[in-house]
């Protein structure tokens, strides 16, 4: 089956070929566009490569030996790190890959040029075929025209012969007869000419249409086939070049990977160490700075009973802290063990998740343990030093069982003899009362029975005559305030760790009141501020304090935040004064908010103004009537149900219950 044997329409086949050629031309345009994309890309890659190289030059030796200054201002060292070398190779391979891309562009360019030339040639062939076809048509037309002309001539001759015949029939003469004979000859000749030209025209038609035209069509088919074959070859060339590029890139990239696999970490680390090693500096040893006037030495002073009492109390407290820390370390270690085994499981089974996240937890736990161990060391060093200085526990120790207490009425510190008001300590067993700051100076000589009030004062020396046969340190000592180890890393989660919750309520003393002091919570209140009266003169010691004059009324700006200081406004200005220098104001002025702490009613007018508070620590309710709150919850104050505890409504979930007051911060409404 071929065009020649099946088709006759040269024009249809001609447009088919024109479309073929246009398609090849379009394919060439595609390649040209591909070249321009590649060139743009190469341009961008070149810029990137240049940028990386410049950065690499600027980086100098930082990947090799860090930013150490080389001796004699050298900028080059004899050997580079394998890390740096690997990156240098990376940049070199990057450059090579750009070259490969340029080669690729070159190939596409020559392919495009080749197509251009081929299209021109094929176009010429197409035209030749078409020319030959039209030449054939012209020949046929010419032959037909000639036959038509011969027919006309023959008909003219016939007419002439007819006319002469009629003339002779009328008047037969010799001359006419001769002309008539001549006409007959002429007519026959013309007829023969006509017949011959018809034969030639038919022969031409037969030959040109049936043979030559078929040949042209077959040749045109051949051209079409060659164009398709040509497309196949250029398409292959085009894609082959791309594959070739890919192969080159792959091999270049593999080499780059090989270089990075050659990084020798231990070698590089040794190189860095070599250039960064400096003389080992021992940590600074602190020495005691002696003061000649007092003849101080670096030894712990143990020459009087007060000092020994202080040291012994300090040691006791440190031992309490130490046991808490040791417990914490133990539980942290158990936690670490757990995390570690989880980590090992994750490492062994990657489908569980990212082991690195677990590893971070391991690191965190180790850090927490290390910090706890520092606290442990801090306690142990002090305990050992004290024990060395004062010897074994030869002395009997009967520690007081202190609790926090709010002294509402003016009383006297049994230790230092000074006025004691508001925050202080009281022994549960003997009733001994003292300042928080005096705790460590109190001799551990609890009588274990309540003395009449008038005999409680000033037992400040250590009565060695009252020795009792208790030689071990009781473990039930109440550490009223963990001043050394203040659970910095541990959020208060249980009642026993919260100093506020140790207030004793079943106290039968009439001179103290464990009522909630509205000032015991720190808050910035935008209300009419309460007033108090200065009980004593006070002379300011440092800048942020003010002088007090006994008897003057002062306005409370900021209540005691737990440090024993109140910010007031008074005749000498605004500043801090010791809380225990102030007594409640009894003024009966119009202010409803006058502050009367002798009132047993917890919901003082001052409290009524406070409506809401923000939770500052998570608290998990331990008993039925307690509430669980979360950091940043807003609670609405309902009442002070017992000292240190407030009844609130949790605005987050509407639940009502008790929470420690110290877990919230009041907010003004
Ligand atoms: Zn005191
Ligand atoms: Zn006592």
TrEMBL record:
Q: Where is the SH3 domain?
A: 527-587, 608-669
SMART domains of this UniProt entry? C1 (SM00109), SH3 (SM00326)
One Pfam family cited in the UniProt record for this chain: HR1_TOCA
What residues does the Phorbol-ester/DAG-type domain cover?
Answer: 399-446
Enumerate composition-biased segments (Acidic residues). 501-513
Q: What domain of life does the UniProt record list for this protein's source? A: Eukaryota
Q: What is this protein called?
A: FCH-domain-containing protein
């Amino acid at each position: 089956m071929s065009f020649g044997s099946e088709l006759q329409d040269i024009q249809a086949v001609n447009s088919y070929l024109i479309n073929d050629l246009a398609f090849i031309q379009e394919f060439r345009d595609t390649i040209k566009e591909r070249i321009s994309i590649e060139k743009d890309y190469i341009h961008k890659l070149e810029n990137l490569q240049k940028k990386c190289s410049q950065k690499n030059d600027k980086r100098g030796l930082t990947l090799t030996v860090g930013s150490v200054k080389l001796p004699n201002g050298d900028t080059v060292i004899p050997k580079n790190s394998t890390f740096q070398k690997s990156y240098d190779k990376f940049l070199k391979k990057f450059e090579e890959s750009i070259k490969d891309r340029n080669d690729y562009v070159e190939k596409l360019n020559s392919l495009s040029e080749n197509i251009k030339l081929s299209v021109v040639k094929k176009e010429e062939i197409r035209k030749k075929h078409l020319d030959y076809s039209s030449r054939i048509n012209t020949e046929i037309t010419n032959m037909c025209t000639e036959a038509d002309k011969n027919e006309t001539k023959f008909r003219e001759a016939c007419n002439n012969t007819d006319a002469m015949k009629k003339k002779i029939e009328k008047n037969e003469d010799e001359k006419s007869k001769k002309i008539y004979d001549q006409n007959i000859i002429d007519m026959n000749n013309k007829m023969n000419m006509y017949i011959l030209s018809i034969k030639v025209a038919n022969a031409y038609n037969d030959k040109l249409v049936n043979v030559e035209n078929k040949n042209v069509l077959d040749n045109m088919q051949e051209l079409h086939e060659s164009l398709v074959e040509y497309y196949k070859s250029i398409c292959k060339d085009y894609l082959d070049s791309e594959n070739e590029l890919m192969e080159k890139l792959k091999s270049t990239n593999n080499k780059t990977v090989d270089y990075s696999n050659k990084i020798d970490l231990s070698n590089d680390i040794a190189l860095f160490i070599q250039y960064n090693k400096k003389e080992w500096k021992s940590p600074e040893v602190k020495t005691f700075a002696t003061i000649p006037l007092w003849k101080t030495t670096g030894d712990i002073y143990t020459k009087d009973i007060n000092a020994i009492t202080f040291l012994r109390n300090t040691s006791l407290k440190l031992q309490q802290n130490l046991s808490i820390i040791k417990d914490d370390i133990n539980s942290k270690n158990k936690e670490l063990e757990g995390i570690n085994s989880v980590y090992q499981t994750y490492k062994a089974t990657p489908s569980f998740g990212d082991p690195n996240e677990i590893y971070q937890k391991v690191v965190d736990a180790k850090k927490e343990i290390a910090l706890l161990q520092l606290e442990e060391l801090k306690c142990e060093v002090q305990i050992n030093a004290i024990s060395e200085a004062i010897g074994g526990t030869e002395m009997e120790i009967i520690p007081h069982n202190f609790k926090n207490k709010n002294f509402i009425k003016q009383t006297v510190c049994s230790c230092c003899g000074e006025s004691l008001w508001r925050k202080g300590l009281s022994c549960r067993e003997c009733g001994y009362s003292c300042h928080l700051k005096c705790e460590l100076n109190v001799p551990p000589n609890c009588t274990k029975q309540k003395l009449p009030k008038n005999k409680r004062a000033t037992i400040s020396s250590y009565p060695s005559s009252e020795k009792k046969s208790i030689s071990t340190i009781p473990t039930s000592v109440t550490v009223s305030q963990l001043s050394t180890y203040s659970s910095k890393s541990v959020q208060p989660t249980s009642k026993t760790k919260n100093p506020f919750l140790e207030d004793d309520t079943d106290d039968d003393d009439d001179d103290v009141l464990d009522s909630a002091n509205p000032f015991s919570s720190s808050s910035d209140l935008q209300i009419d501020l309460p007033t108090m009266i200065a009980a004593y003169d006070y002379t300011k010691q440092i800048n942020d304090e003010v002088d007090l004059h006994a008897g003057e009324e002062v306005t409370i700006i900021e209540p005691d935040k737990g440090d024993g200081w109140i910010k007031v406004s008074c005749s000498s200005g605004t500043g801090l004064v010791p809380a225990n220098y102030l007594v409640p104001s009894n003024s009966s002025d119009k202010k409803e908010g006058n502050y009367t702490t002798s009132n047993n009613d917890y919901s003082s007018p001052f409290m009524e103004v406070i409506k809401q508070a923000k939770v500052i620590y998570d608290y998990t309710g331990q008993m039925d009537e307690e509430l669980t709150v979360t950091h940043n919850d807003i609670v609405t104050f309902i009442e002070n149900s017992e000292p240190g505890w407030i009844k609130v409504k949790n605005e987050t979930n509407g639940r009502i219950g008790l929470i420690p007051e110290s877990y919230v911060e009041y907010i003004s409404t």
